[in-house]
Amino acid sequence: MRAYDVVIVGGGLAGCRAALEIARTNEKLSVAAIAKTHPIRSHSVAAQGGIAAVLQNVDPDDSWEAHAFDTVKGSDYLADQDAVEILTRSAPDVVIDLEHMGVLFSRLPDGRVAQRAFGGHSHRRTCYAADKTGHAILHELVNNIRRVGVEIYDEWYAMQLVFEEGEAKGIVMYSLLDGSIEVMPAKALLLATGGYGRVFNTTSNDFASTGDGLAMAALAGIPLEDMEFVQFHPTGLYPAGVLISEAVRGEGAYLINAAGDRFMASYAPQQMELAPRDITSRAITREIRAGRGVHPDGSAGGPCVFLDLRHMGREKIMSRVPFCWEEAHRLAGVDAVEQPIPVRPTAHYSMGGIPVNVDGRVRCGPDGLTAGLFAAGESACVSVHGANRLGSNSLLECAVFGRRVGAEIAHYVGTRKLPEFDEARYRDRARDTVRELLNRSGSTRINALRTAVQDCTSEYCGVFRTAEVMQTGLERLQALEQQYDDVFLDDKGDCWNTELIEALELRNLIVVGKTILASAIARRESRGAHAREDCPKRDDANFLQHTLAYYSPAGIEIGYMPVTIKRFPPKERKY
């Protein structure tokens, strides 16, 4: 297998933006992008609502400082404020650059990029392409990286990170097409593998979001940061779990309970439906718990609430949020012009991830950095989202830090030699792993065990948590982990063996699930998306710090790292 200057694992927005910037910075560098799906099928295409940037097209009073404050406040003061400053200062230039690449943003009547309101933002700063913003951006980025000569290895599954003595040296990968195993050396590796929503049973994430990059890093001895902070999006379509974008509420939709009341008035009277996601998800859960939920047929006492668009009118719905109308109609049989949409919280986004500095260099602990290893996007934790991400800041993070990390990598590999390691040993080990899985004669089906893992994580580490419940969940997850050795595969073939990929992904889901639960048990406070009913207050004295979770089969060790605070000292979070 050919060696490259840079290998990017992941074909989504962060990885593609980094690849483009590497080529822009030094066109002589060889760059490969490895993706287990075709890049256009990466989960970035599912990002609907928009990308935040202070363009001042509809709100001349907006500023990057206001955007930074909203982001830090939304994070419940756990975001690193140096990273937030980079994010918000860079946003306008990054969005204009995307527009110049050909991204078809929605427009104001005078031709400028349109901007809408979004939850937790104090100004209308979210740029959008109807409700298919991620789709519009990723398509142009993939076209651009092809144009500059980035080599794309699509439908290759990354099995293992080659990481020796604190240095990343390459990647071990499996071809879905023919079952071949290759080892690809590189001067630098970028992990941009996205999130892990599939560790939960109800999620807005696609089936490929199995935390592969995070698990590879954890199994190599790299800590994972702030894994207890999992965002539950308030408006997952019931019962499918797919996303009904926050753009719908940004355009004026209401949340109503069984009595027809806009209940957010009781939880966030100023922001109402545009309160941050953690607050809105908890409000919906409390309404359901109190018996004020609805069934999809409108009867009281059900497992969801209604998202009501009817007052918006057909023209606005079909022009501003057509994809959300289509999803509700296709998956729930609801015509949102005439009927309210049944919704409830769904696992959506990972605030935590692989710890990195502001240049994307992966940390090996609170103070040190790895060599040759970078991360960006949802798989990384820089941390610009802290304990809770604001909507439309995720695409922004991918674009801003994808560009920044790409430039850093291009400079980093300029004087770096190709690392040496025993490729045959890694190739043989991977072949043994595959052979062992294919030859098993166990009695546990992959789907049954995966469902049990997802049910366990959802039941014991959901919107509301307690130490007792989470400890039970961790013990059950550890028991389920023991069953992994009993998994068997029906498909013994080399060609397009998706069952084998599911077995490898299941291992990663278990690693990620255990890390989430262990991190959440250790954080004895409520902050952002981490809501402890047995510790209902935020505790800055003890927990204004980032969690670092070190995985091993024997158990997970928890450490901590300081939060960077600059402009905005922590204070009570009210909306």
From TrEMBL:
Residues 450-575 form the Fumarate reductase/succinate dehydrogenase flavoprotein-like C-terminal domain. GO terms for molecular function: electron transfer activity; flavin adenine dinucleotide binding; steroid dehydrogenase activity, acting on the CH-CH group of donors; succinate dehydrogenase (quinone) activity. Keywords: Electron transport, FAD, Flavoprotein, Membrane, Oxidoreductase, Transport. Its EC number is 1.3.5.1. The keyword Oxidoreductase applies. Residues 5-395 form the FAD-dependent oxidoreductase 2 FAD-binding domain. Pfam families: FAD_binding_2, Succ_DH_flav_C. One of its GO terms (cellular component) is plasma membrane. It catalyses: a quinone + succinate = fumarate + a quinol. The active site is at R277. It is a peripheral membrane protein. Gene3D superfamilies: FAD/NAD(P)-binding domain (3.50.50.60), Fumarate reductase/succinate dehydrogenase flavoprotein-like, C-terminal domain (1.20.58.100), succinate dehydrogenase protein domain (4.10.80.40), Succinate dehydrogenase/fumarate reductase flavoprotein, catalytic domain (3.90.700.10). NCBIfam families: PRK05945.1, sdhA_frdA_Gneg. PANTHER family: SUCCINATE DEHYDROGENASE 2 FLAVOPROTEIN SUBUNIT, SUCCINATE DEHYDROGENASE [UBIQUINONE] FLAVOPROTEIN SUBUNIT, MITOCHONDRIAL. Belongs to the FAD-dependent oxidoreductase 2 family. FRD/SDH subfamily. This is Succinate dehydrogenase flavoprotein subunit. It comes from Rubidibacter lacunae KORDI 51-2.
